[in-house]
Specification:
Elements: E1 3-6, E2 10-13, E3 17-22, H1 34-42, E4 50-57, E5 62-69, E6 75-79, H2 82-85
Length: about 100
Amino acid sequence: MKILTCPLNGPRNIVEFTYGGQVKPMPNPTEATDQEWAHYVFYGDNHIGVVREWWMHTPSSYWFIVERHNQTDEVIRTYDPAELFDAGAAPAAEPAGGDS
């Protein structure tokens, strides 16, 4: 059984979670071209290394961020989105100390 640690609810079986996609900066919807918006919606980075992803604990509807190595599937850490977005800066393209 695979366990994922939710920052709000603690360790839980992976079946309780829903994947939400990569964490990436959203273009300004009022200024983005159709091509920029399509790239944001339909394309993701496909490198091997540490990636930042949205996950939701489905029973509680709590969204959080997971840093995970996409080749080994090792979860590096999980944390509340406020840690990333309340800092006032846009999210980095790569997690701190991540492999690429």
